[in-house]
Write a structure and sequence with these properties.
By secondary structure, the chain is α+β, with helices and mostly antiparallel strands. The protein folds into two domains: 89 residues, Glutaredoxin (3-Layer(aba) Sandwich), CATH 3.40.30.10; 134 residues, Up-down Bundle (Glutathione S-transferase Yfyf (Class Pi), Chain A, domain 2), CATH 1.20.1050.10. The chain contains nine helices and six strands. It has a four-stranded mixed beta sheet. A two-stranded antiparallel ribbon has the order 3-4. Helix 1 crosses helix 8, helix 4 packs parallel to helix 8 and helix 7 runs parallel beside helix 9. It starts with 10 loop residues before the first strand and ends in an 8-residue tail after the last helix. 35% of the residues are buried. This is GST N-terminal domain-containing protein. Pfam families: GST_C_7 (PF22041), GST_N_2 (PF13409). It comes from Talaromyces pinophilus (Penicillium pinophilum).
Length: 269
């Protein structure tokens, strides 16, 4: 299949419907699309409808639940120019780079050292796939931020039209009896926040290697910055304001600078 130098038809991104676009994995894809300057539109899918929509598009689950069953989530990208459907955020970024290599702001995957390891027990370096270092980094960053996802639950910006159904879906997934089960005691929250800041310090060491700009490579943004930026977007929308300001300011303001630096690619279309 020949790669078009420029798409003639707009691509379509399927994203999770909230009152503020902040789902981490779709956000990574949105940043990559805006970086590549590719025209696209968004279809917003309520969380309870994701499984139905994904199955209707004949897209298999790209993750698994703890019991081994398929976990249906977003994003999905459809490119009518190549009749392609991609259902994973990392695969979407690779697709954009390979299909539109010279489009937009340049290379999503330039060589760089991405040696952040959070989950040492399950870490196994991938050498069998293209951009394996970025794949490993994505997996480790996801494990790191997912470990603190509980901090975001109480204030998730749920869309009013589907808030109750979405809450029921989260409660079911977590094996709880009610939404109140996500509430954390203040001392528990402080302990987890302190641990989060410790993790951010380790991740921040990578950003401290080049101080010429807010990104891992200084002034050059890459998909690795989008990986972290997707999770920062979630925190900016769902942490209490004082906790988000603490994240922004921690470790010399590295993550506030990164979040602000990515605003150039943050347009919601």
């Amino acid at each position: 299949m020949a790669s078009p130098s420029k798409p003639s038809e707009a691509l379509v991104l399927y994203d999770i419907h909230t009152s503020a676009a902040c789902a981490p994995n779709p956000w990574k894809s949105r940043l990559a699309l805006n970086f590549k300057g590719v025209a696209y539109s968004t279809i917003w899918v309520p969380l309870p409808d994701i499984t139905k929509v994904r199955r209707a598009l004949d897209m298999p689950p790209c993750h698994k639940n703890a019991d081994g069953t398929g976990y249906y989530t977003l994003p999905i990208l459809i490119d009518p120019n190549t009749n392609s459907k991609i259902g994973d955020s990392f695969d979407i970024a690779v697709y954009l780079q390979k299909t539109y290599p010279d489009h937009g702001a340049g290379d999503l995957f330039p060589p760089q050292k991405l040696d952040f390891i959070f989950d040492r027990w399950s870490f196994s370096k991938r050498k069998d796939i293209e951009y394996g270092d970025y794949f490993d980094f994505d997996a480790q960053v996801e494990a790191a931020f997912t470990a603190y996802f509980a901090l975001t639950m109480e204030n998730l910006p749920l869309h009013p039209a589907t808030a109750e159904a979405t809450k029921a879906e989260y409660v079911s997934r977590a094996g709880l009896t009610s939404w109140d089960g996500f509430k954390m005691r203040q001392e528990e929250r402080k302990k987890m926040s302190k641990s989060l800041h410790g993790m951010l310090g380790e991740l921040g060491n990578l950003f401290s290697r080049n101080t010429s700009g807010p990104f891992l490579l200084g002034r050059q943004v890459t998909y690795a910055d989008f990986i972290v930026g997707g999770w920062l977007r979630l925190m900016s929308a769902s942490l209490p304001e004082n906790e988000w300001e603490e994240v922004r300011a921690c470790h010399g303001g590295i993550f506030g600078q990164l979040h602000d630096g990515l605003e150039k690619y943050a347009e919601v279309k």
